[in-house]
Amino acid sequence: MDEEAPPERDALALLAEAGCLGATQRALCLALALGAAGRCAQLEDLYRCALARGVALSDLREGALMVHLFAGFPVAIETFHALDRAAGRLPPSDPRADVPDGERAAQGRRLFDRIYQGSAESVLEILRSFAPTFERAVLEDAYGRILARPGLDARQRELMAVCALTATGLPRQLRSHLRGALSCGATAEEAREAIELARAVAPGPQADAAQAELRALLAAP
User: What is the pTM of this model?
Assistant: First the structure.
């Protein structure tokens, strides 16, 4: 993080605040944003605090599985080490939480269509133009293998994505996932709060820009 532009808020303080998002959703949003930014020391503290406040370890584990979608596998591995230390040892994962191999493509496409609505096919055409295998990886691996898992619902995951993409400063993807959060049942106020949580990870101007994106989206006919 740029030392000249520090975060405006403290993650642990934000976790303890009241808002329209409950403690679990706030913890999941903050954890994904910290993980995506590679802030693993702070992330471990957040995990400890979240567990002490009654957030389920299984929910935090689901969120940790999403980190590689935003920051790659090396950061995801460090994220799991942070969660393992905070939990005092992760128990074995439940294989029933996995999406069966034969269902990943179909479930991934259904979720992708739900998030991107009428623009889903045009987005897939862009991915296909990069490489056919990239399109398949997004649908089957990112959406089918990870995001379609039953442990968290689409609304929860999209709000997490909004927070993480605000923190990492990726406006194109943020715009898509703001729409996706609303399409999956999040309210405008929940989306605003997910953006505000990112102030614990990124400089304020990134959150300001994200709030402007949300206002423009809500004002569009």
Answer: 0.94
| Total residue length of the chain | 221
pLDDT digits (tens, 9 = 90+) for 25-48: 999 999 999 999 999 999 999 999
Which residues, at least 6 apart from 161, have a Cβ–Cβ distance to it below 8 Å?
32, 70, 173, 177, 180, 181
Any residues with CB less than 8 A from the CB of 59 and at least 6 apart, and which? 24, 27, 28, 151, 152
Q: In 3-state terms, the chain is what percent helix, strand and coil (to 5)? A: 75, 0, 25
- Which residues, 6 or more positions from 74, have their beta carbon under 8 angstroms from its beta carbon? none
Q: Which domains does the chain have, with CATH numbers?
A: 11-92+149-219 (1.20.1290.10), 100-148 (no CATH)
Does residue 183 contact residue 102 with C-beta atoms inside 8 Å? Answer: no
